[in-house]
Every structure is written in C-alpha cells, then in structure tokens.
C-alpha cells in the first residue's frame, strides 16, 4: 500500500491501511508491503513495521521531496511493475485521490474509490471492495477479477490501525526507478501552509454536531458552549455547511469526514444515510431531535426528544455545575 508522508510525518490513514492490510494478508497467507516514497524518510520504516508492515519498499529520491503527481506516479507504477502485488491500497486523501487514478490507468487496472469496507471473498479469494453508490442510497461491492493489482482508495477514519508492536524492525528493500526531469514535471515554487489552531474533528474524543435543526449560524453558540464545557469540538451535517453556517472542514459524513469519537452529540440532525456513514462507529451517540421518528434515533444510544434550544443550555449548565 501507498504510505503517505508529508514532512517525514506519516498520514494517519496510512496506519489504518496497514491495519486493514494485515487482516487481508492473513486471509491470503500473504505479506503486507508498505511503499514509502520521499526524500530522507528511511527513518520511518521501523514505525511502519510497528503498525503492521512486514516489508517496506523505500523509494528515496530528491524528486520525491514534496508531492507532485508525475514523479510519484512514476515511482508507484515502477514499484507495481517490479513487485507485482495482488492488491494495492491508497488513502482517499487529496494526494491519494490524485495519485491512485493515474497509477491505475498506467498499470491498466481498475480502481474502486472511497471504499468503506474491504474483505476477501472466501471462495474466489478476490478483494471485495464496498463503497456507497447512487448518492449513498446503496452500498455497491465491486470485484476486479481480470486485472492486477486490485486497487482501492479508502476513506480516512474508516479502518482501524493495530496497536503498535513494540520494537518491530522493518525489512527494507530500497528501490529507485530513476527520475528524469521532463516537461510533465511540475515545479513547486513555494509551499504556503495553512495555519489553523483548530483541532481536527477526526482527532476529537467528543463531538457536538449540529444540523439544519440548529436553525442559524448564531445558534451554533449553544453547541460551542456545550463542547467547551465537556472538552469537545463542534462538528456539523452537510445541511449546515450548505447553508453557509459552518465550514466544510467540520462536515461529518459521506462527503465529509469519518469520525469515531467516544461521544457524538447529534443535535438537530435527522440521520440521513450519508450522515450516518461518517459517524455511526462512534462509541456513544446522543441524539437531540424534536421529531421522535427521526432516523438518528435508530443509531443513537441515548435519545432526547425535544427542542435543542431548550435542552442544550440546560445540559451545558448541568455539566458545568456538576463537574466544576
Ligand atoms: P435535516 O435532514 O433537514 O434534519 C434536520 C433535523 O432537525 C430534523 O430531524 C428535525 O426534526 C430536527 N429539528 C429541527 N428543529 C429542531 C429543534 N429546534 N430541536 C431539535 N431538533 C430539531 N449529509 C451529511 O450530513 N454529510 C455528508 O457527508 C453528506 N453527503 C452527501 C452526499 C450525497 C451524494 C448526497 C446526495 C447527500 C449527502 N448528504 C450528506 C446530505 C444528506 O442526505 C442530508 O440531506 C443531510 O444530512 C441532512 O442534514 P440535517 O440532518 O442537518 O438536516
């Protein structure tokens, strides 16, 4: 699988892929190989072993210092040509979504994008790649019987990483296919990093999420107050993002982020399938909705039927006084 690193820091989804890779490899009596690209990144290999890689194919070259499409495509393509894997996985990050289709076209195989489930078919031993289709109304399971590798991108936050294995050492295979600058190579002139002091909702342990039922951007203050009182972060449904009340980077769901917090408050969220796809793995779901037949109550562990404008301030006050 493709290991994404930026500034020599491995992106979380790559560890999740290694965890899933372990499970798939065991079913196939095969090995997990991490493909690590970059410049001066060899120091990451043992960490990849501790998260489940049996072997690391390391392509270390100055041309791979920062991500650009052409050299990365050339490198992954060359690795696939040399090692001929049965399965090749990418994280469905911005980089993975740019790289995977190019690689799949170059090696002439299919690509199932944005998978939420991967498993091995007991009989055929093919990879069953499942993803939402037709606007999320059905889950489609896709097979790639005729071409290799079977390729998929996987959404961050969906698969689970394994607990790190202490002291694991990677078997490293260094490989360099050679890079020749040509007119397809994009030159990165400057990198301007987005500075944000916000916590990524994918890392938050407690999320207070609001939907159309919150009613206005100002009313999100009720959610922020609760989040502050319990050390959580505010998230939202797509309806709130589309209404311009909240930023896209806190959207939960099929076209937003997949989250697994310890506690997820769904406030004024109906529970559409596309929203559930991003949060139903949360440990404890607390739903507040004035409609007792809202589908969110089907997945909620605790359901409160009522007006969030009344319930949220009471809850926040209670938490503040009880836990002050
Ligand atoms: P609504 O469905 O309008 O629900 C509002 C809820 O608030 C209702 O249940 C109502 O009873 C309740 N309510 C109203 N007032 C109050 C009050 N005062 N107190 C308590 N409850 C109240 N959606 C996502 O969230 N994330 C996605 O990533 C996503 N991706 C999508 C991708 C595709 C391809 C498509 C087609 C749709 C996608 N959607 C996504 C949209 C999704 O189908 C729903 O339209 C959306 O989730 C609805 O958001 P909502 O629950 O906030 O709003």
TrEMBL record:
Gene3D superfamilies: HUPs, TPP-binding domain. One of its GO terms (biological process) is fatty acid beta-oxidation using acyl-CoA dehydrogenase. GO terms for molecular function: electron transfer activity; flavin adenine dinucleotide binding. Belongs to the ETF alpha-subunit/FixB family. FAD binds at residues 212, 237-238, 251-255, 268-275, 289. This is Electron transfer flavoprotein alpha subunit apoprotein. Residues 2-189 form the Electron transfer flavoprotein alpha/beta-subunit N-terminal domain. It comes from the Bacteria. Binds 1 FAD per dimer. PANTHER family: ELECTRON TRANSFER FLAVOPROTEIN ALPHA, ELECTRON TRANSFER FLAVOPROTEIN SUBUNIT ALPHA, MITOCHONDRIAL. Its cofactor is FAD. Keywords: FAD, Flavoprotein.
